[in-house]
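Researcher: Let's continue the batch. This sequence belongs to ATP-binding protein, and it's 446 residues. Same format as the previous ones, please.
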Amino acid sequence: MLLEFKTKNYKSFVEESSFSMVAAPKQKGLDYSLMKTKVKGKEIRGLSSSVIYGPNAAGKTNIIGAMDVLRAIVLRGNIRNTEEKSSPNPAATALELIPNNKEAEGKPVYFSVEFYEEAESDKFRILYELEIDLGVFLDEEYPRKIVTENLFVNGEPIFQRADNLHIGNMKVIREYLSDVTEQNVDSINEIAKNSLNKEELFLTNGFKLIFSQKFVKLILDWFTNKFMVIYRADSMQLIKRFADPKKKAVYVEKTTDKAAKLFGINSNAVGYVISEDEPEAKLYSIFKDMKNKKNTAIAAEIFESYGTIRFINMFPLVIKAIQTGGTLIVDEFDASIHPMALMSIINVFHNDDINIHHAQLIFNTHNPIFLNSNLFRRDEIKFVERDDDSHQSILYALSDFGTTGDKGVRKHEDYMGKYFISQYGAIKDIDFTPIFEEILDREGEV
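Model: Same format as before. Here are the structure tokens for ATP-binding protein:
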């Protein structure tokens, strides 16, 4: 369960911004959205969903992009560029794209992620912080370095890295430490300090090799399988892989096919086909050939609508999140998909009887239909606004307005109506009329 994500000096987010998935104090109503658990006697009240609003180019995609970049850095274990080009987020592979392009001097980029995870009978509240010096925008040759890197578990410092490395009291993860660590604390600590590389994460290198491969695996498993960040969902393509696949065989997943039929497809079924010249399965529409009594498969992109394909690609991720307690974060979640289908998915995350593993759904949107006090809590509704002069973005929640005063927001207000009269900001009045008046004036001059 994601609790909080922070970033600073990431693209348009120059000042520190906090994206919290912890319930704001004194917020009442829609308690079915709350996921409650205790760690060391302290209660965590996590949110099961969040929706992000803001005008075009405000920075909604940037906050999701920042999550995607941190995930990519942690999984590859360093702050060097990578040749891997499969990601639709260029900044995840070319880090020189991260610094704000208005800054003349480079400032360290900061990331922080806090999450809750269970392992066997253990409960952990894990906080990982990373600050990196990347130079200025587009300076690919800049000698990068890790400025700070910290790991806290249940409030206890495990390690803190700056100019030097400080190893904390690891009592909280004692069951996950290697036998060598327990027996040779002083010498192990010295080896750890000498293992630091300015471009490599201590978490996934020195700490993993010297102290606890098991605990690092727990963290990496969360980043790999439960921190599901979908950047630019319009380019999402879910590739299916099958063990010992048969060429030209059609694989139909019953759950996805059933959901697709409810959503609406133009064929009899949808499935995955592996061709002779491609090892990866691709989505196909399947038809019953009434004349020859055989099934015919046609590439889905030829026959199905764009929205249908997007839904089919996305729905298995929804299933995975619900089954594993993952956090599904999607850029433009609602593009080309009917609001009623999205409402049903949101209601699944809000259903205590179904969402038993504390899965979360986070997405940005332009659709005001979700600005509804009967659907989202005030602390679940986020806004991103960008200053026209400084081009810097800020992130805030509807709950930040409080409940009193002229700008207070009460539980059953008309959120949509107030948003459109700019009561909450994060909206831009756009009028293209002058452009067309100018075009007509020029035509008149001719």
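Researcher: Any comment?
Model: The chain has two domains: 1-232+331-446, 237-306.
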